[in-house]
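Protein modeling request. Please complete all fields; requests missing the sequence field cannot be processed.
Requester role: graduate student
Desired output: 3D structure, token encoding
Chains: 1
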Amino acid sequence: MSFFSDTPTGPLAALSGDSPDPASNPSSESEHKQARQAMFTAAIDLLSRREHSCRELRQKLAPKFPDTDIEPVLQRLQELNYQSDQRFAEVFARSRVQRGQGPLRIRQELQLRGIGSAMVQASMERLAQDVDWFELAAEQLLRKFRRPVSDALPREQQLKERARRQRYLAYRGFSGDSVRYAIEELDRQCEDAGSW
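Delivered output (196 residues):
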């Protein structure tokens, strides 16, 4: 038996719906089953590459299958645990931390991908147990700028350079407190290392 079988024991059993009305067109019913099967296969192909949120799958599948109802396919994927918004949120958030992004940006990007506020909050709370946002901000600042703002610069240039660093970290999604900590930490590390 094929994994994508339309038999009652296959993954698509729930997608086939009630038994077709004898008066309905059998070829039309067959076409709908084939379209659902093709959409299911396309979704599995997408999910085999990386986790996707439900919204992402809708956005990618809807243009390819405009005449097919996507909701039964998404429900079946969730029943089989092939797609999970919670799992997507956790994997996505961790990947963004590895890229050096802060909590504000990660939260915003999760919401843009259709993850609900409660699920975003839960994912961020789990992530906060493992991630020190202050240290991550300091690490990103050191990686990008390597040196503190020089006291030898005119005051106006010093202010501009500090503002540039603050904008960099704010864009990456760090809070004001994390930004201040990172700038002070870079100054302290460079002072301790004697690299002024």
